[in-house]
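Quick one: structure tokens for this chain, please?
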Amino acid sequence: EFDFGNSKFHGEKIVRLDDFLKYFSQKKMHIFLEIKEEGYESKIVNIVKKYNNEYITLISFKYEILEKIRAISNVLNLGWLTYDFSQRVLQKCKNIKLNQVLVMSIGLQKSEVKTLHDEGFIVTAWGVINKTDISRLYKIGVDRIIYDSGYDAKKVIKELESE
């Protein structure tokens, strides 16, 4: 019922997850749904299961949320947002069969990316600051990059691929 618009856009509403997925899950684009609060795991799983969830990854900083989701469904893609990589992080990811590890880009090393790949994880870097960071992450083998401008990221990667 609230208007979340501003002076330029009046009447903006919060989009319901079900409506969002109804539209975007058919686009064959990767969708990261970050879950910030506990207690909604079952509801979210029930909604996501209705759509083409091959491209949907449920992510969270809270490992407990991911544990609960994995207990409900062993087929959904899950990813843990973490500030750094360690053997403890690796073991916890393996324990609940995560698909993806999303590591803060600063300090992420090629050897860490290789270890995660060797264990079968998709590696995503988040907190990417600039185009130089994109270039470094591409060169160390990161699979995905979360950056404010997808256009800029694609442009940098295209340039690197043509070198």
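Helices lie at 17-24, 41-48, 63-72, 87-95, 110-118, 131-139, 150-161.
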